[in-house]
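Limitations
The structure tokens in this dataset are predictions for the assembled complex, not deposited experimental models. Users should treat interface geometry with appropriate caution, especially where small molecules or nucleic acid strands are included. An illustrative entry is reproduced here so readers can see what is and is not provided.
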Amino acid sequence: MTMNQTIGSAFNKTTYRLSGHGPRNIGMLMTTFHDMNEDTDSDMYGKGKFIEQFQEKMAEFLGKESAVFFPSGTMAQQIALRIWCDRQGLRKVAYHPLCHLEIHEEDGLKKLHGIEPVLLADRSRLITLDDVKNRGEDISCLLLELPQREIGGQLPDYAELEAISAYCHEQGIKLHLDGARLFEILPYYGKTAAEICSLFDSVYVSFYKGIGGVAGAILTGDSEFTEESKPWKRRHGGDLISLYPYIISSDYYFEQRIGKMEQYYQGARQLAEWFNRCPRTATVPEVPVSNMFHIHFAAPQAQVEQALIDLYEETGIGITSNLRAIDENSCYTEISVGDKYAELSSKQIETVFSLLIRKLSLLGKA
Amino acid sequence: MTMNQTIGSAFNKTTYRLSGHGPRNIGMLMTTFHDMNEDTDSDMYGKGKFIEQFQEKMAEFLGKESAVFFPSGTMAQQIALRIWCDRQGLRKVAYHPLCHLEIHEEDGLKKLHGIEPVLLADRSRLITLDDVKNRGEDISCLLLELPQREIGGQLPDYAELEAISAYCHEQGIKLHLDGARLFEILPYYGKTAAEICSLFDSVYVSFYKGIGGVAGAILTGDSEFTEESKPWKRRHGGDLISLYPYIISSDYYFEQRIGKMEQYYQGARQLAEWFNRCPRTATVPEVPVSNMFHIHFAAPQAQVEQALIDLYEETGIGITSNLRAIDENSCYTEISVGDKYAELSSKQIETVFSLLIRKLSLLGKA
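Predicted assembly:
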């Protein structure tokens, strides 16, 4: 037992992993260039074959008229909301209290765009149609995140989603999809990306979540909307002379993994079942609706951390690289199933969970 | 003579070139990865060995306490000005009418940061100490661009620069350097980068101008300033999970070309002499002070364009990929000397200029 090792460093030493696609190393990018011709021209400030072809491909996949590649979702989404607010003449949008823009972007939406958010629902549950109806304030745009990442990746029923979309359309409220993990929910809904996107006026998707690319995002909608997003991309400093390192790798990993979303989803369901058999352990949601879920442990962070570090060392199998405290006596982590899960044999999975059950049973009994 | 060819496509077919480092193709990035170990970890949201080491290296080279890597100069400079404006409690900055922020950034500074520019000097000349003294308005920050790109890459005398710096310091005005082409002016001033940067509170440098990298920028200053820039980078959407494609290539080409700035500068001086011997042709500045200059032709754009296209086809030597009209009877282009110039023999240079002299003499005489 090594006491001065962090869960992150212990995880990094594991060969097998329940979650993720493997290490984020520079080989991830190098691989995507192996079959490329080095004479291929760079994109130039948003123009050129590379970027235009990928944009067209994604617009088609997402069932929209047009698409624009952005270096990040942070940039793409602020810009989407700004365009809708300018269009409606009101700098107010509604979203969930745990929306990425509210908790991970240093208030860029407020400080750069002067847009005020109206928070709907509470931190522990999804936005409902009633929340939208009872928002109490005029808004230009509603942002929905599917799945709602910070509560384990939850999804509304499809009928509820359709009802929210219809209501917004009727009320003249623009509906924007934070689809950072859109590809990952297609198996659960049993819909195409285009079917889901047709409920929204604008959609952002990411290429480094389930797709596992290096970085990059697509923003899509009608042509008027996407054309308006380009000068904003320039204003944000995202209209780089060359974005091809992100475009090439996004396209490469999209092709490699878009067909595996069902596999990741089924893996997440199996894994959640296993975790729910462990003492002091519950997954959120209980039955995953995408490749992701959260695991809540009813034990102090330091204790769970040590149990996991020991487990990684004994088995060479990693579960997660970090735990976050909820309070003194509980903590949680996030699991996103990717390529690594399929490398594990049933025997390895049984071994790791029988050990985990033992270790968690012993917590607090020393 | 091919009539339906653009100057850009004709230039792209040339093997030899008076300007630039060669084509911007994806091989430029691939080359920089050849000797890298693919297990090397990615940077992660601004943290990690890669990004931190390069930031430290650049801070040292530029003689500042600390540095932050940005995907673009557009992002870095707006943020620098915003920090100084917040510090001074006044959203007003002064810069040249042809400043990058004024003409190439879709008014990001105004629309994202609400910062109002005070334009100093006029479009045809550099900002002087008198312009700064007679600005007529309070400002938080003065931005100087060295060299002033849009007027051919001109520079003030070093003594004037020192006087402006001293005046700003005395008046409590922050001084920011747009050093997109800072490395390129070191030979003319005969100063180190650190000596020049010591006159400024904050400095931005680019890695895809003279350095010829893929993209990327460094913003540098004291630690308090650079720490404050990081949440702004996140707000702009530039705090990417992985910036290593730009960092690795910036570092690679910095090492490859930082020692060649004298060579590029001398090349520009030689080339400008040649152009000034051509009819209807004058360079701005007459004697270059960096690797760059503009060429003004006293003839209509279409005529000069056709003469150049013919020249490229006859010699296989390219001069520029584009011309811009000044008015109906004159046009100009920009030359930046890089690695390609050194590939030309004296004989090739004599041939191309004797042909150019002939073609320009014949203009309008058909």
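Some entries come with short summary sentences. For this one: The mean pLDDT of chain A is 97.
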